[in-house]
Design goal:
Blueprint: H1 16-19, H2 62-65, E1 151-157, H3 165-168, E2 170-175, E3 181-182, E4 186-189, E5 194-196, E6 204-205, E7 210-214, H4 219-222, E8 229-230, E9 241-247, E10 250-257, E11 271-273, E12 289-291
Parallel strand pairs: 7-8
Antiparallel strand pairs: 1-2, 1-11, 2-7, 3-6, 4-5, 4-9, 9-10, 11-12
The structure holds calcium ion (3 copies).
One calcium ion binds near residues 253, 255, 283 and 284.
Length: about 300
Amino acid sequence: MPTAPYRPFCLVAASLVAAFGCASPTGSNGYYYGIDANVSARFDEDAGPLDTAGGGVSDGIASQDSTSDSGAARGENDTKVPVDTGVLLDSGSPDTGSPDAGPVDTGTPDTGTPDTGTPDVDSTDTTPQQDTQPPQDAGGNGPVALTPGALAITEFHPDPAKVTDAKGEWFEVYNTTNQTVHLGGLTIADEKSSHAVVGGESLTIAPKSYFVFSNQASPSVNGGITPGYAYKVVTLNNSGDLIALKVGTQTIDAVTYGGSGWVAKVPGKAYQLAPTLLNASSNDFGTAWCLAQVTYGAGDFGTPGSANSFCP
Ligand SMILES: [Ca+2]
Ligand SMILES: [Ca+2]
Ligand SMILES: [Ca+2]
């Protein structure tokens, strides 16, 4: 508060103000001039500075009076409560777990009886189910390794005509046994080159069934075959060559064609083994072979992957 001298006559008439040195309404001269009816209202409680003007006049700081005070006059208590624009908390408890980043398992659990036997090391269970037991054997034993004569070469095409020669070449084998065999360790060779079959233990041939090896995998390139395996590097001479299947030093089957007893080759026609002679020893003789009778794929002759026609 000001500490200027108290002069009661200043209250009597405003006209005395200038004459007797009373304080001006603004207090700028430093004199205290009496009881202002609005004095109690001069101590505002809003966030703004103290109003210094008398008589209910705004101090001119509009932002602090008009926005904080609920009334028009300065110095009033601000009774407004800030509006809460936030989101109400729910009453539940937060989940403390972490989401599982893995894929959802859509498989069906295996409801079969678990196999209590020894897992078959040659088979791979590719079904992502919840079965932690080894696959059940279909009939006792899994695929077995190749032994001499287990496969017989039954058809081969050394001279394709509808597609590029080497890329259209293929040969067919037949599982002569009563067991499913796997191709683990198998090497394919002709007279000049050889190829070790990749992933052979996962390649199997059912009993008494055919399997085709081709130079190229794509039917659009190989003349329309869907082979069991594509070996690529081995090529078959048109006039005569060797086709050998080996596991280590053991020959599973081999055929040397083009010599005595063989019918002359015809471009576009495969050689096929007579269907009554499907074994690894009969196919050593050219007389057991003839040219294919029916067309396949792009139009060459042969029966890749299926039974041979009867030879004339
Ligand atoms: Ca050829
Ligand atoms: Ca043979
Ligand atoms: Ca065939």
